[in-house]
Design brief:
The chain is α/β, with parallel strands linked by helices. The protein is built from twelve helices and 13 strands. The strands form three sheets. The protein has a seven-stranded mixed sheet, with helices on both faces. Helix 1 runs antiparallel to helix 12 and helix 7 packs parallel to helix 8. It starts with 6 loop residues before the first helix and ends with a helix. The structure holds pyridoxal-5'-phosphate. The site of pyridoxal-5'-phosphate has 12 residues, from helix 4 and helix 5.
Length: 419
């Protein structure tokens, strides 16, 4: 796509945008004069859909009118409340609905999935991960390794970028799997890296990992709702994600897991609770656990309905638009941001996110040489919400559901004036 300069062009793009109607369905944060702020933090906390309140209200109304009967009575009995959510999420991540469960939050879910899928043995006890994984993932993996009695220094293999580079390549990953794969029990990576915005080749990595006899799992916090995924088709063993970033389920929203069908019937060890017992005999209160078919067997507790209502509200928007439509706009929007930044021809700015749209999602991570947090504070003062990751990275995520091309244009103007 060849772009043009000038604000009028950004307005033209907005007018032609087939998804432009969706912006009106989100609560856009405003400054104290009532003007829309430029919100580029959907990779951290997605914006609130305007219908979210009514979904939460409905739960409160059911609760007030029916009390505990709400589980089985009313227009939308709570017992089946997550069924449609699983269908919506399965389209977003490319799965079958019974491969999805809605539960807990991301870090907890990674622990629960590692209990099942990190089964270290004498000659196969290592975990392959990224050097620059999200801190929680580092803590999760290190504590799991120690929990099993291993030393993280021996058991964790970290994939580094090439000397002097920021991104990891398929060659980096391939050579680690070739040298360490036979002693690795698990490969656990982020689908999209939180700091660089780099998207990994899930199909290729899963195939390479399986060829070496490893289980392969992904943290999809920055990938779900952002890029097209085919978890089932690509034979990914398991995955987990939070629903408050690109999926707009609200702060600390309930998370979700994917467990591939091929693991459903096997006796995979798992930490169990009554909500993973089959729905049709759960309330018989039997002594023995009779697991639900599929990923729901991993659910342990009663679902937090008020939080889940916010997720359901947000997914009703995703039900109206396919991931491929969203990604088509996302590539244009992020490509336009990249074009305008490159057009500044400022030697102090470097975009560390991959240039190839196949290797990234919505986010561009920008390094400004010799900048400090003051630059970032100034950007905020000019009405842009974005974030700063130490030591010198500004993350900008134009989200196709609610960001406009004019948002992108205005941001680059502000950036230009400040540097
Ligand atoms: C956002 C994020 C998390 C956050 O985990 P919570 O348990 O939801 O707080 C974990 N891992 C990655 C990669 C993330 O991007």
């Amino acid at each position: 796509m060849v772009h043009k300069k000038g604000r009028n062009y950004s307005k033209e793009l907005d007018q032609k945008d087939p998804l432009k109607v969706f912006r009106k369905r989100f609560m856009i944060p405003k400054d104290n004069k009532g003007n829309d702020l430029i919100y580029f933090c959907g990779n951290s906390l997605g914006l609130q859909p305007s219908i979210t309140k009514s979904y939460i209200d409905q739960i409160l109304t059911d609760w007030s009118h029916l009390g505990v009967e709400s589980w089985f009575e009313g227009d939308n009995p709570w017992i089946a409340y997550c069924d449609s959510i699983k269908i919506s999420l399965s389209k977003i991540v490319g799965a079958n609905p019974n491969e999805i469960a809605v539960m807990n939050s991301l870090s907890v879910n990674l622990h629960l999935l590692m209990i099942s899928f990190y089964r270290p043995a004498k000659n196969r006890f290592k975990i392959i991960m990224e050097r620059d994984a999200f801190p929680s993932d580092k803590y999760i993996i290190e504590s799991q390794v120690r929990f099993h009695g291993y030393d993280p220094n021996d058991a964790i293999i970290r994939i580094d970028p090439k000397e002097g580079e920021q991104l990891i390549s398929n060659e980096n990953i391939r050579s680690i799997i070739e040298s360490e794969g036979e002693s690795a029990a698990l490969i656990l990576l982020g689908g999209v890296n939180y700091i660089t915005g780099q998207k990994l080749d899930i199909a290729l990595i899963t195939a390479m990992g399986h060829a070496a006899g490893c289980i392969v799992g992904f943290d999809l916090a920055h990938a779900s709702g952002n890029v097209v995924l085919h978890l089932h088709q690509h034979q990914v063993d398991f995955a987990a994600w939070c629903n408050y970033k690109y999926i707009n389920g609200g702060p600390g929203s309930v998370g979700a897991i994917f467990v591939h069908q091929q693991h459903h019937d096997k006796n995979v060890p798992r930490l169990e609770g009554w909500w993973g017992n089959r729905r049709d005999n759960r309330f018989l209160m039997q002594d023995h656990f009779d697991p639900e078919i599929g990923a729901e067997a991993w659910v342990t507790s009663t679902p937090p309905l008020i939080a889940i209502a916010a997720l359901k509200a947000s997914l009703s928007i995703f039900d109206e638009v396919s991931m491929s439509q969203l990604v088509t706009k996302s590539r244009l929007l992020t490509g336009y941001l990249e074009y305008l930044i490159n057009d500044l021809e400022d030697q102090s700015i470097e975009i560390i996110t991959p240039k190839d749209p196949n290797d990234r999602g919505a986010q561009l991570s920008i390094k400004v040489r010799r900048a400090n947090k003051e630059l970032f504070n100034n950007i905020i003062r000019h009405g842009v919400i974005c974030d700063w990751r130490e030591p010198d990275v500004i993350r900008i995520a134009p989200v196709p559901l609610y960001n406009s091309y004019e948002d992108v244009f205005d941001f680059v103007q502000i950036l230009q004036n400040l540097i």
